[in-house]
Amino acid sequence: MAELDGIENKTDPGDALDVNIYDLPPEKAKNVRQVPGSLDEALKALEAHNEFLRRGDVFTEDVIDTWLEYKRKREIDAIRMRSHPREFYLYFDV
C-alpha cells in the first residue's frame, strides 16, 4: 500500500547516494532522509500517516488503532520495563 501511495502521489524518493553515509560530515548527513530508528518511532509515523492503508478498505481505522495499541503494550512497554541483557553485562557481570 505504501508503494502504491508513493506512485499515486508521485513521491520523490530522492537521488541515490553512492557514498558511505557513516562517513558524511554532519552538514551533509542532516540532508539524508531517514527511516524510523525504533519500533516506537515507526508506530508514531504510522499513527501520523496511515490514510494510505485505509484507502480501498484494505484496513479500517479500528484495525490500525488496535495494532498500534497491541504493539505498544505487548512489545514496546514490555521491553522498556525490563533490563536489557547489555545492562546485566555492564553492571552485574563481575
Structure commentary:
The protein has 94 residues and is mainly α. It has one domain.
Describe the SSE topology.
Elements: H1 2-8, H2 26-29, H3 39-48, H4 51-54, H5 61-80, H6 85-91
Organism: Paraburkholderia caffeinitolerans
Enzyme class: ligase
EC number: 6.3.1.2
What attributes characterize this protein structure?
94 residues, mainly alpha, 6 helices, ligase, EC 6.3.1.2, Gln_synth/guanido_kin_cat_dom
Averaging pLDDT over every residue, what do you get? 90
Please give the domain count.
1
Helix content: 55-70%
Distance between the termini: 50 Å
The share of residues in extended strands comes to under 5%
Total number of beta strands = 0
Number of contiguous helices:
6
**Poorly predicted ranges (pLDDT <50, ≥5 residues)?**
none
Give the SSE order as H and E letters.
HHHHHH
Structural class: mainly alpha
Radius of gyration: 19 Å
Shape: flat
Q: Biggest sheet, in brief?
A: none
Keywords: Ligase
EC number: 6.3.1.2
Organism: Paraburkholderia caffeinitolerans
Domain GS catalytic: 1-91
Describe the structure concisely for a colleague.
By secondary structure, the protein is mainly alpha-helical. The chain contains six helices and no strands. This is Glutamine synthetase.
